Amino acid sequence: MLLFVACTTAPPQPTPIPAPTPKGPELQRDVPSAHPAARVDRLLDSLPVRDKVAQLVMPWLLGGYEPLDGAEMRQALMWVDSLKVGGIIISIGSPTEIAAKLNALQRAAPLPLLIASDLEGGTTFRFSVGGTQFPTQMGIGAGGVEQDAYQMGRITALEGRAVGIHMAFAPVADVNSNPDNPIINTRSFGGDPKLVARFVTATVRGLNDYGMLSTAKHFPGHGDTETDSHLSMPTITAGWARFDTLELVPFRAAIAAGVDAVMSAHIAVPGLDAGEHRPGTLAPAILTGLLRDSLHFKGLVATDALSMGAIVKEVGAEEAPILAFLAGSDLLLMPSDAGKAIDAMVRAVESGRISRERLDRSVRKILELKQRLGLFEQREVEIANVAKVVGKAEFRAIGEASTQRSITLLKDSLGTVDSIRAGKRNLALVVYGDAGSTLGTTLAAEMRRRGHTVRLLRTTPDAAPAQRDSLLAATGRSEIVIFATSVRAVSGKGTIALPPDATHFIGELAGRKPMVMVSFGSPYLISQVPSVPSYLLAWSNNTSSESAVANALNGTAITGRAPIFIPPVWPIGSGLQRTGN
After folding, report:
1. Which parts of 223-318 fold into alpha helices (H)?
2. Which residue numbers are catalytic?
3. How wide is the angle at C-alpha 265 spanned by C-alphas 263 and 268, nearest 5°?
4. Which domains does the chain have, with CATH numbers?
5. At 115, which helix (H) or strand (E)?
6. Residue 313: predicted pLDDT
7. CB 467: neighbour CB atoms within 10 A?
């Protein structure tokens, strides 16, 4: 076995945080009204109750191309023109597709739309191509550099505003204290509340300094759950003392940093809700008593998606927005039916169940934010500017550097990673993933470019035993096996783990050849296959992470440290350090 020789090359250094330049040439900012408060007052007074209620509602829309007379676009135009909703949550699409679609909707809307998107971990969470690639939030936490979190927020703001997005439903402020959590996982910065608080603060400042509204989620903390709230309602049984010292720490930090919004979690917390077993989104004790009164949050409170199973199964689609609003929410996100949600809310106002004063308070906040963003002066974006901003070289270099810092070597008991770093090897790269996955393509190409012999082999979760046997035989001519996979949190899936046949297959591979397992997703897979001798964490399934792994396997410094406890034996801060050569 070749020995690793330490060298003195320094690891990649973080890019300094730049001074905010909110009127840069690439980000159009609108000149505010001379009397913004008076404008909001006049507008609020002029709106009928139905239009006021509509300002609270934000339906969800895919960002991909759709002709104006397509079914989805016709529905979206109905939302903004007939129902007069206050905003849209835009999902996956290319940057230019998103910008063109949002411009069309802005032109059709009587009032400017507030556009939001789940831009956690950067714009690539929703941009199908082109956005600057960062590791997941947990990868940023593993890199240990708060400036990376700031830069992620800054670049997300610039790229998002370039396509017409004003509000990021980010950062995730949950502390992932439960390794079995099926939905948070790498979306969190880590398992240490103080670390999460620092990185949440940096992200909020990066977003806000460059013109993007920020949202801390999922209040009062979704990190210690084992149920996917997209399917049914999780429960956290802990009381005030635990929440005060763990889950609430990052939310306090976000509020202190000036976060614009807080998103509620569809989880039951009876210890904070007088023993009630209901979603926090519907609990006045959580959203008003705790968030507003105790933590003194003055900004927007947004629900998580009101179409999720944890809500709909509990109270029904039409009652959900009413109860969420009465609990303390301002923004009603993704109701099952936007029109029925508005109708239900209007009935509640007209019957006196919701006071007009309470309704006006929330609508005023939304209109004031639109005024602050300059949307009453300029609501569309220049399509020609998108390619000048999204994914430009400066941003890519920052993202790549933060991704390199995130790479974490948790285990190398046989020195296999050190052996690969020491010289050219004959490798079998075995990729486990869904059919059609491109995972491994960039890694194989980068390893070959550096002189290694690489045989790329693929298997899928539904592969027959005979196919697996053939694949095992195909690795026979290789010195070392690299096993790559990406198990990620997927809403509605309910689990985040390798199936038993996969763990058996990995064990067989590890028993035949020296093997390095690389996780481009959940860091907890080693708990299922503890016999694997070498384990490398890459956090994200993207080409930047694959290139960073190739760099790490070819002598670039490895400096990441796990920001979570990984069962059975790796505490927070674990990570074998390697200097560059």
Report:
1. 240-245, 248-256, 284, 309-315
2. 230, 304
3. 150
4. 48-389 (3.20.20.300), 407-552 (3.40.50.1700)
5. strand 114-117
6. 80
7. 12
